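@channel sequence for tomorrow's demo:
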Amino acid sequence: MIVLAIHTAGPACDLALLKDDAIIAEVREEMTRGQDARLPGLVEDLLAKARISLADIDRFAVITGPGSFTGIRVGVAFARGLALAANRPCLGVTLLEATLPSGQQGSALVALPAQKRPPDITFWTQTFRTGVATNLASEMRLEDMIVFLNDRPHMLYGDAKSLRAHLPQQVHEATPSAALAARIAAQGDPSERPARPTYVRAPDAALPQTK
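structure tokens (generated this afternoon):
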């Protein structure tokens, strides 16, 4: 099975190709805007690296968020468009699922920075048990996460720099990637992983409401 995965929910365009159980090609370009213009070219570069065509892809995967509102929207729409054109399934993977390292055992909390400006410091979070999500991705305030971890100890994965500044728990550095999303999608059921945006909250910039 060949899976093409796309991640534009963060400050980059990150793409990966998985064949069977091996990542055979990856491309990544740092950017916070203009993903829609770059994605077609990056897909071409990725396929050229692996020497395969779009028709060889068995599944498409996309990181659905939470994260950059515009990046999520662009990535999901583009991945779904490719899948529709190729008549192949497109599977959604959350940002936190695509952060947790493969083979994790026990209870884990994945946390990535959402709001960094005090006093509203928040994190995108999701809990897992032996690699399987036990809740939906959500936004958690720092003080609530401290209480949660004190009451229910979990292994903590995510952005170590931001987490260690506020938490005494050991933090395992982990970053989201298209490669991890591809591995998850290869094992997933398309009917249980719709490629729909996981926004969690409303966008910061909203259209003015009409009276």
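heads up for whoever presents: The chain has five helices and eleven strands.
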